[in-house]
Amino acid sequence: MEPKEDTPEDHKRRSRFVKRLVQSSTGKETPLVGHPNGIPKTIVQFWDNSYQLPTDVEDCIGTWKALEVRGYKHLLFNQEEAKLFISNKLGERHSRAFDKCYHPAMQSDYFRLCYIYINGGFYVDADDVYREIEIDHLFMDGRLKIQPLCYDIATGLMVKPSIFTTLGAHSPKWIFYFNNNPIIAPARHPIIDKALTQATLFLEYSSGEVLPEIQSTTGPGNLTKSIFELDINYVQLKSILHVLSDWENIATTKWDLSYRHDSRNWRLSNQKQLKNEGRESE
After folding, report:
1. Cβ 190 vs Cβ 230: under 8 Å
2. Which residues contact 68 (CB under 8 A, 6 or more apart)?
3. Which band of pLDDT confidence, cut at 50, 70 and 90, is reported for residue 218?
4. How many domains does the chain have?
5. Is there a domain that residue 278 lies in?
6. Is the C-alpha dihedral spanning 146, 233, 39, 78 positive or negative?
7. Structural domain containing residue 101
8. Quick check: is 282 in a domain?
9. Which stretches of 54-173 are assigned E, i.e. beta strand?
10. In this structure, is residue 280 part of a structural domain?
11. Model pLDDT for residues 88-145, shown as the tens digit of each residue
12. How far separated are the first and last CA of the chain, in Å rounded?
């Protein structure tokens, strides 16, 4: 079935839904049963051309790789390795969908859904810096852990979590949604299943004439929509989803990175073909 186009009212309903989840989160939700071993202690990251990894990005990745001394496994996939994983584990349909991801950010979005759906683990973006605090508790049950976000249309800025997570905090100009970084979940989690299925459909129905919008096709918009459309009640949802309102205490996104100044930054390349900046042939 071809995906229907969202209306402004669809976006408003999802924002209200996320607001309710975020502001009612107490950290005491009943954990998902059926995953006695919790989530694999595997940190997964992606950079499309790992043979030409920018030094500043490598420094960010190194903060996560350092967790290996504490018993964690760290994996960094490039574009070829990600496609091979998808082809081997999910087959031709998903491999073709990955081929339609025209930007590294989109490839990263789609790959993280594929990897976490198959193996479970902890996916985090390559430009996040680990703040070296304890994270073992994030792996102890089968709930999906994701970060809430809130964007203020009036100012064009993100609202601080300490403000928008407060019960009753509201502005008609705020948009509540979930980020797809990090994604921490066991294999075959129902929300990741829904998000992967939906992203695959979006990519399959995208035409060659107009490139699909990254955020809504494979990114935070797709994840938020998947949670909203999951056919379970609110109590059930709280038992399989944990809102990470304190993610900024665990990791910090580093904005002053070299790649953000050229077409490798998805915000400069949304619905555009990627140029060859910083991606010379090997």
Report:
1. yes
2. 74
3. very high
4. 1
5. no
6. negative
7. 8-259
8. no
9. 73-77, 121-123, 128-130, 144-146, 148-152, 157-158
10. no
11. 999 999 999 999 999 999 999 999 999 999 999 999 999 999 999 999 999 999 999 9
12. 41
